Amino acid sequence: MELWYTEKQTKSFGITAKIKQTLVTEQTAYQQLEMLETEEFGNMLTLDGMVMTTEKDEFVYHEMVAHVPLFTHPCPKRILVVGGGDGGVIREVVKHPEVEKVTLVEIDGRVIEHSKKHLPTIAAAFTHPKVEVIVGDGFMHIAESRDAYDVIMVDSTEPVGPAVKLFEKGFYEGLSRALKEDGLFIAQTDNPWFKADLIRQVFSDVNEIFPITRLYTANVPTYPSGLWTFTMGSKAYDPLEVTAERFHEIETKYYTERLHKAAFVLPKFVEALTKK
């Protein structure tokens, strides 16, 4: 008998993976959490039926969330990660010597605990001396912060459940207040095949608040459609104007200096989502 897991990405389309065993199934205070061992992608974390990360392809998403903004900002000392309870983003952030402190605010502590046990290569930086972990509401943390961070990374789930408010204009206004006068943020903003309206609305909202707004993409095989977008709002620094001397050697599998700017070259139908 074969066991398969299917994520229904729309009412009529999904992605499926053959499962070796179920490692965890738990209804937390916030969401349905499952940790599955798959044949193709290794251990997989799902929340409310959606794939969050897998051992095989996680580096794409985590590197593109972290390194694009950190190489854009010339002096990223204080970093905030909202969500990201698997630990992949903070693992990438601490590779940058300029970073003095990275604060991770994850609403669901069970995500952190299960990731430490079943995704150890992803959750490797939780004990790093530069890392502060807060189990709490990232939305409220942002609302209570002023001029506190150089870079904020919003590593949220898709806009369902507790993550819905992280895709609203008021949240982006809060991000602007929480950032220093030359700060910038980046947020995952879903895929252009199934969530075009969401991307268009987020880009429009961010563009009304930040003087520099950019959209970039990466290929994440286990995410809906495989083509994933990220939106950056910046008060001062344009990721397309980063000069060669800003880059330094770090260990990566996906991100490169050349890819930094190439990621902002959008397919025509995706670029159209950034136009009024």
TrEMBL record:
Positions of the catalytic residues: 155 (proton acceptor)
Span of domain PABS: 2-235
Binding site for spermidine: 62, 86, 155-158
Gene Ontology CC annotations of this record: cytosol
GO BP: spermidine biosynthetic process
Enzyme class, spelled out: transferase
The protein's annotated pathway: Amine and polyamine biosynthesis; spermidine biosynthesis; spermidine from putrescine: step 1/1
Subunit structure: Homodimer or homotetramer.
NCBIfam families per UniProt: PRK00811.1, speE
HAMAP family, alphabetized: Spermidine_synth
Protein name, as recorded: Polyamine aminopropyltransferase
Organism for this UniProt entry: Pullulanibacillus camelliae
